[in-house]
Write a structure and sequence with these properties.
Number of strands: 36
Shape: globular
Helix content: 25-40%
Structural class: alpha+beta
Number of helices: 18
CATH class of the largest domain: Alpha Beta
Distance between the termini: 69 Å
Low-confidence stretches: none
Largest sheet: 9 strands, mixed
Mean pLDDT: 96
Bound molecules: oxalic acid, manganese (II) ion
Number of domains: 2
Radius of gyration: 24 Å
Length: 629
């Protein structure tokens, strides 16, 4: 280790930037920064604090560096990721594990020394000719018992700009904590670049794309990629580090929205909700008339026996596909109004307007997108049609720009959690809404047994049913069995654990027709709000309690002036016994074959749920309408 790293750093940065670094009394930080300047060899280096000027400096750099181009609306920019860099790369995302550590077969890992050697070789001189940005953030609100300081080093001004929109500035936190700061570290490089459209540049060496996570040092390395899920350190990369830290300290890091649902007499009830990517999490969090705290990542702690949650982030990296003013008025407003918004991977026409799949209006005849010059009917090398925008195309903005942001969004104490929701993309098994018998039943049957059909948020085939406990498998950094046990234990340390709900927005009938409209979720939320306040009863079925027809009918009418028919209720809430039993078979097999250290209680709950379903089938047949219970 260098005996005097801060002095050594003087030669790489301006006087002002040197002062910013030196004011933070943390030798570990100096050593880290120095080590990676030496390894990556950037041409120039900037250090940013929390000031408005520095935030603006980053915005400008993204344009000057040809990583973002201005669009017609003031403040809006477009950024492209390479054609083969449009989603999270699960294959090349690996945990660096020391000998003797086993994360189980579902988590991708590599021997720590081997992984470090590989990534160091890839990163050696990777920033030659590039500018390195050094930035400080807080994961979670400032001055909060939940929060974790984070240091991001990146040669991408787009990543730095995204970080500024998505996270709270943390330079002051670093100053305050000094040598006590236990901070996460992220080092990212886009690698060598090649020309794309609009004068922008994209990562060239995708074959050398790597995202390596070192839990021991709480450091993540990301190279030769630009897509936010692989590069924005504080997002899904920090989440893996935080899941591990939370496990050691007995709290939870979850792939969850946080929102306030308005009840009668101005009552506000808070929920968290876990859904895999592209399965309705953001649209639930942003539903009109309710209050958003967060749409993607939450830290949950039991404080004085009460479960509380914070939004780790302060912005939204949302999926734009299909967004329209009727169904998504809140998001529509932000992405069509002047302000700091980054668009990624949409079609841009000559007049600087963006077009995305499903945007109202005519599909443009031409323009540019992530595939280059675009025209209707354009095909990729495999003959698949290239749509105007990528299905995983995104927008990025600050959460405060939303009309329905909660006034608690930055509260250091977080919000009290009354209900936890689990949801996946399930076309044929689960009813649209149910509530668990108790915490353990909900954690196991709704959380740990969650399955979902794959989407464009990850590279690979779509529509394949996969197991994703708590919607979190992609981000787990500890063995699944242990993670489930942590969740079970968490409820024991709450004096009144939240109720646990499961929703399914994707149920279809036998002909493949959707059984619900996008906005029906508003009714489900209102029912959940009443339920946690003991104002509605449920009907007991083998898989949980379901709402009564009368309550839903009243809510549909109050909210949408819609007559909710008994036929709709029956078809939506019929318990599909064969599909539910088949799911339990799948789960049992997965837990036996693919998961280590499964708590015994998981098998007990599966067996009990099976017995309840079989007993009901004896009495009422394979497909049991709610009126039979
Ligand atoms: C996300 C994801 O971007 O989960 O939030 O992919
Ligand atoms: Mn997510």
């Amino acid at each position: 280790m260098n005996p005097n790293p801060i002095e050594e750093l003087r030669k790489f940065v301006s006087n002002d930037d040197f002062t910013k670094l030196a004011r933070i009394d943390n030798r570990k930080l100096y050593s880290f920064v120095l080590e990676f300047i030496n390894l990556c060899n950037p041409e120039t280096v900037s250090v940013y604090d929390d000031s408005k000027e520095d935030i603006e400096r980053t915005r400008r750099a993204a344009i000057e560096n040809h990583e973002e181009a201005k669009l017609a609306i003031e403040g809006h920019t477009i950024h492209y990721d390479g054609f083969h860099d449009q989603a999270r790369d699960k294959k090349n995302t690996k945990f660096l594990v020391p000998p003797g550590t086993d994360l189980g077969p579902e988590l991708n890992s590599i021997d720590r020394e081997q992984g470090l050697a590989e990534i160091r070789e890839i990163m050696s001189n990777i920033m030659r000719g590039h500018h390195l940005h050094i930035k400080f953030f807080s994961l979670g609100p400032a001055n909060s018992p939940f929060s974790i300081p984070a240091l991001q080093l990146t040669d991408s001004a787009y990543v730095a700009h995204s970080d500024n929109l998505l996270y709270r500035q943390g330079y002051q936190e670093f100053l305050k904590k000094g040598s006590e700061a236990r901070f996460f570290k992220f080092i990212h490089s886009q690698g060598e670049l090649k020309d794309a459209v609009l004068g922008l540049k994209v990562s060239k060496n995708i074959d050398k794309r790597r995202i390596f996570i070192d839990l021991e040092e709480e450091t993540v390395y990301s190279a030769n990629t630009q897509y936010g899920g692989n590069t924005i350190g504080l997002k899904k990369l920090a989440m893996r580090l935080a899941i591990n830290r939370a496990s050691n300290e007995k709290w939870l890091t979850e792939h969850m929205l946080v929102m306030g649902v308005h009840g009668p007499d101005n009552r506000m009830t808070y929920f968290t909700g876990a859904f895999p990517s592209m399965c309705g999490k953001t649209s639930t969090a942003m539903i009109e008339g309710e209050s958003i705290v967060g749409d993607d990542i939450a830290y949950l702690k039991n404080i004085d026996g009460k479960t509380r949650a914070v939004n780790v982030e302060s912005g939204v990296f949302g999926i734009i596909d299909g967004i329209n003013p009727d169904e998504d008025p809140i998001q529509w407003e932000t992405i069509t109004t002047p302000g700091d918004v980054i668009f990624t991977n949409q079609l841009v026409t000559e007049d600087g307007k963006v077009y995305w799949n499903g945007k109202p209006g005519k599909v443009p005849e031409n323009g540019v997108n992530h595939s280059g010059e675009w025209y209707p009917g354009k095909k990729d090398a495999d003959g698949n049609e290239i749509t105007p925008s990528h299905k995983n195309a995104r927008f990025t903005f600050k959460i405060d720009t939303l009309d329905n942001v909660s006034k608690e969004v930055h509260s250091p104490e977080g919000v009290p959690v009354s209900g936890v929701i689990y949801g996946g993309r399930d076309s044929d098994t689960s009813v649209p809404l149910k509530v668990a018998f108790d915490w353990a039943h909900g954690i196991i049957m709704y959380g740990a047994c969650l399955e979902s059909e794959t989407t464009a948020a990850t590279l690979g085939k779509e529509g394949v049913r996969v197991f994703t406990p708590m919607s979190n498998l992609d981000f787990l950094s500890l063995p699944i069995g242990k993670y489930i046990q942590n969740n079970l234990d968490f409820g024991k340390h709450s004096t009144q654990p939240p109720d646990i709900f499961a929703v399914n927005y994707f149920l279809r009938d036998k002909n493949g027709k959707w059984l619900n409209l996008k906005n029906d979720k508003k009714v489900w939320l209102k029912w959940m709000e009443l339920r946690v306040n003991s104002e509605v009863d449920g009907i007991k079925t083998p898989t949980g309690l379901i709402p009564k027809y009368q309550d839903l009918k009243r809510l549909f009418f109050e909210l949408f002036k819609k007559e909710y028919s008994m036929e709709d209720y029956i078809i939506q809430f019929t318990i599909r016994v064969p599909e539910n039993l088949a799911k339990l078979e799948r789960m049992e097999k997965i837990f036996k074959e693919r998961v280590t250290d499964v708590p015994d209680t998981v098998f007990r709950h599966i067996a009990e749920q099976k017995a309840r379903l079989e007993e009901a089938r004896e009495k009422s047949g394979d497909y049991i309408p709610p009126v039979k219970f």
